[in-house]
Specification:
Length: about 475
């Protein structure tokens, strides 16, 4: 999951006085007012739900199939069509946006990456959900930061979050033992990470020491799991929220690109051809880590869902073979460690023909029972209080507490309309450096010029990160 995903502001509840009027005027919608709760009947309607399928996609497929059965039983005559979009992250975003442009192709529910919400609102693709949420008691169970993940700049809510994530370093203890490295690895600086990778290259030939996602084919995974896990460990950021300006010309940006240059030029990362494979994210979880081909992966909290009984690569030994440790800041400054968080939401396109029925299905997805099942099976960090306190969820995986604790130091991407384009420029800079087409300084200069054009000129940028 990309990728994955950007909770920033606190959520807000809206009044529902206009609910009946809005429902009555919605094209193709049912006439019954949405009710609080799970899968109450809203009258017969056919709805289509579109989501990105990563690899085999067993967990999400089973989750949606179960919700479909539950919903159709509670709403006789209704049909739910599940539409998996098998595509890389960037291709998924493009295909979804093309579908949402027309009432003839728009799904009724989409799996929306939170970093795209504001750009998709600006494009007119999404429907605000405040009138529905006002009558939904379960909304009070969501953490305020989670509500903010689905909040537009206009203050309205445009999706229901289903979980969040954090990022850290996964490492293979068996490979570490062969290299004479400690099983309880606690790197304090970037140099500690690099020196460990160098030791592995020297002492355990045939193993890739370190994977840091980089380049265009991996899309947002490169920008977020790769570059921003570095940048936010420096003294610099992407966006100055006090000045409301994008940051250019930062030393942290150049230093992050230099890290990418180091791992690729020294051969402690995958070969560029391998790293630029659009399926690299799937291969890390289903092949490289479980088969002992990769020593260290800078990756997400959800990675272990590959190794569960229903995953792409069942691997019960992972809890003993793999360790997790926080990604350190550049020189140990600040809190000493860094993480990025994201998340996905269930949203209703503005051109859905059955928005009321779509909302009723979202409520079915997000009953306490169903939300707990998905957070557990899908290796998500819970965003609902009742799920987070569930004993089964808390004990579902050995790594759950470690990744949950990283929320205390996590950083969120600037979920602004310009971010998707800015992210693309980050990825372009990374690829230019990893392939040797540009020096870090040249790539950073090109990035600065591109960002200035994207955000609207020199008065929209600053050289001050804080």
């Amino acid at each position: 999951m990309v990728t994955r995903k950007r909770f920033k502001a606190a959520g807000a509840l809206a009044l529902g006085a206009l609910l009946l009027g809005v429902s009555a005027c919605s094209q193709g919608s049912t006439t019954q007012e949405p009710e609080a709760g799970g899968s109450q009947s809203a009258g017969p309607a056919n709805i289509k739900i579109a989501y990105q399928q990563w690899g085999p996609g067993t967990v999400m497929k089973n989750f949606l199939t179960g919700a479909k059965t539950e919903y159709e039983a509670a709403n006789p005559g209704s049909k739910v069509e599940i539409v998996p979009i098998v595509a890389s992250e960037n291709d998924y975003y493009t295909k979804l946006q093309l579908m949402m442009r027309s009432p003839n192709t728009a799904p009724d529910i989409v799996y929306e990456d939170t970093f795209l919400i504001n750009s998709d609102i600006t494009a007119g693709y999404l429907k605000p959900l405040d009138d529905y949420i006002a009558n939904w008691a379960d909304w009070n169970q969501f953490e305020e930061t989670a509500k903010g993940a689905a909040k537009g700049q206009d203050g309205k809510i445009y999706g229901v979050p289903d979980g969040t994530d954090t990022r850290a370093l996964w490492y293979n203890k068996e490979i570490f033992a062969k290299a004479g490295l400690p099983a309880d690895w606690q790197p304090k600086t970037w140099d500690d990470v690099l020196n460990t990778a160098r030791t592995i290259k020297q002492k355990v030939p045939g193993v890739t020491p370190l994977n840091v996602y980089s380049g265009k084919p991996m899309g947002e995974a490169s920008a977020m799991q790769g570059f921003e896990m570095l940048l936010y460990g420096t003294k610099d950021t992407l966006y100055n929220f006090d000045q409301k300006k994008w940051v250019v010309g930062s030393q942290g940006f150049k230093d992050s690109l230099n890290f990418i240059k180091t791992v690729y030029t020294e051969g402690i990362a995958p070969q560029p051809k391998q790293a630029l494979d659009p399926n690299m994210g799937n291969k890390v979880g289903s092949d490289l880590l479980p088969n002992g081909k990769l020593a260290i992966a800078l990756d997400g909290s959800w990675l272990y869902n590959n190794w569960q009984k229903t995953g792409a690569k069942p691997w019960p030994q992972w809890t003993e073979v793999l360790g997790q440790t926080a990604m350190p800041t550049q020189t140990g400054e600040g809190k000493g460690k860094v993480s990025l968080s994201g998340g996905w939401t269930w949203a209703i396109p503005a051109k859905s023909k059955s928005p009321d029925a779509a909302w009723n299905f979202i409520k079915t997805l997000q009953t306490q029972k169903n939300a707990t099942k998905y957070a557990t099976d899908g290796a998500q960090i819970a965003v609902r209080k009742d799920v987070a306190s569930d004993a089964g969820y808390k004990n579902s995986a050995k790594s759950t507490q470690f990744f949950t604790d990283l929320v205390a130091v996590t950083v969120y991407r600037p979920a602004l309309p310009e971010y998707p384009k800015v992210s693309n420029e980050i990825i372009t800079a990374m690829e230019a450096v990893m392939t040797g087409q540009s020096s870090p300084e040249e790539a950073a200069k090109n990035y600065d010029e591109a960002v200035e054009g994207i955000v609207g000129g020199k008065d929209k940028v600053t050289t001050e990160s804080q």
